[in-house]
Amino acid sequence: MTTTVSPSRGLRVVHVPARTPYARKLHGPDFHILNGTEISSGAVVPTAVTATWLLAHAPLTWLDVLHLHHIDIEETAVLERLLDACAESGVRVVFTAHDTQSMHGDESAFTERLRLLLSADVDWVFLTESSRREMASLLGTTSPATVIPHGYVVPPEALRGREREQAVTSARFLMFGASRPSRDQLSPVVNWSLGVTDPGSTLRLLLRAFSPADFIPGSPVPLLLETARHDPRIRLSMRPYPTDDEVTDAGLASDVLLLPYLWGSHSGQLELAFDLNLLPVCSRTGHLPEQYRQHGQLVAEPEWVDWTTGHPNLFGERFLAAVENARSRTGSDARRLDRTFLEHRDQEHKAILAAYAGVYGGAR
């Protein structure tokens, strides 16, 4: 839905992109999001706006802050022109380094984009202190940076009056998300299907729509679909882009969330598991352990898959062992929503908004 935003609502921010709950929650009395709204020219800023679209609507005098997130999708030359256009219009550029390595595996192009941001007048934000240190080591130096945690995925108020669906006698597993090189989908499903013999246990796969790139020669997708069709305990559903409500409903009807990352830096899905009091089975990679430690004793420790400490061929063995441990930890009773943790999320979010107000509007 298109809306028109009053210019009196503080700083005007465009997120590239703004499809994730992480970006869409960053609004308050001091700043508001322009994605999905009509600007003075009559154009509507796309939710998944690109650098090319922004350049086509220069000069960028209609926004105050450009907030960059995942830069893998932008060509370096186009990104450079966008940074120049922001400088010409006095637009502040903020970059949240969700990733310290490419999700798609092209490290040289990813590092080139990072160095481009480093050479520009960009304010950096990191989700963890350890990712800030890693980036400094990778680039040799970084611009002045602020560490601001990820925060909630499901707004606490959206869970008031709701509760997790009560468990049956068997564990219910969930795996969702887009197909990408950094996330293994095939071997966890095959291992679960063959390794979990409980006839009452279920695995729900909530997938994002496939693209031609998902069916290149050697793609695991056909075998993934074949496995799902042959095990009636696997419930497969696909959405163009799952909505917040669809993901939340799936989580509330599950006990264990599978996060089989091959590599990665941070995880919004891990934060979702904390929101919904799901037990994560999660690869110990990147800075995910620090995401867990940020919450102290307020959340249960994930069932870590320590496959990165050994040969990659050990991934399946260690993943299935973690699944078995998770089954024993969940038992037969559903973990209820933790209202104390949701209150913590409320206070954490206020601190996150205050921190971003400082980044967006602070002195250069």
Quote the average pLDDT: 91
Number of strands: 14
- Rg, alpha carbons: 21 Å
> What structural class do helix, strand and pairing data support?
alpha/beta
Unreliable stretches: 1-7
Sum up the overall morphology in one term. globular
Molecular structure report:
This protein has helices at 21-24, 51-56, 76-89, 107-119, 129-139, 156-159, 186-195, 221-230, 244-252, 268-276, 288-293, 315-330, 339-361, and strands at 3-4, 11-16, 31-33, 37-38, 65-68, 92-96, 122-126, 145-147, 172-177, 202-208, 234-239, 256-259, 279-283, 303-305. The protein has 364 residues and is of the alpha/beta class. It has a six-stranded parallel sheet with strand order 3-2-5-6-7-8. α3 (76-89) runs parallel beside α4, α7 (186-195) runs parallel beside α8 and α7 crosses α12. It is globular and about 65 Å long. Mean pLDDT is 91; it is low at 1-7.
Write the layout of secondary structure elements.
Layout: E1 3-4, E2 11-16, H1 21-24, E3 31-33, E4 37-38, H2 51-56, E5 65-68, H3 76-89, E6 92-96, H4 107-119, E7 122-126, H5 129-139, E8 145-147, H6 156-159, E9 172-177, H7 186-195, E10 202-208, H8 221-230, E11 234-239, H9 244-252, E12 256-259, H10 268-276, E13 279-283, H11 288-293, E14 303-305, H12 315-330, H13 339-361
Parallel strand pairs: 1-4, 2-3, 2-5, 5-6, 6-7, 7-8, 9-10, 9-12, 10-11, 12-13, 13-14
Helix pairs in contact: 3-4, 7-8, 7-12
